[in-house]
Amino acid sequence: MSKRKVSPYQLVVTDIDNTVFDWVNYYVASFNALLDTVAGVIGSTREVLAAEAKDVFTTHGSIEYPFLIQELKSVNEFYGSNIDAMLNEAVFKGREAFMKEASRVLKPYQDVHRTLSEIKRHYPDLPIIALTDAPRYVAMWKLNKLGLLEFFHAVYGLPDPRVPTCEVNRRVKVDPEILLKHLQQSNFGFKGRIRILPDDYEKPGVRGLKTVLMDYELDEPVEHRKSVLWIGDNLRKDIGLGNRLGVRSAWAEYGTRLDQGILASLALFSPTQNVHKNVYIKADDPAAPKPSVVFAAFADVLKELGIEGK
Ligand SMILES: [Mg+2]
Question: Given the DSSP bridges, would you call strands 193-196 and 11-14 parallel, antiparallel or unpaired?
Answer without folding.
Answer: unpaired
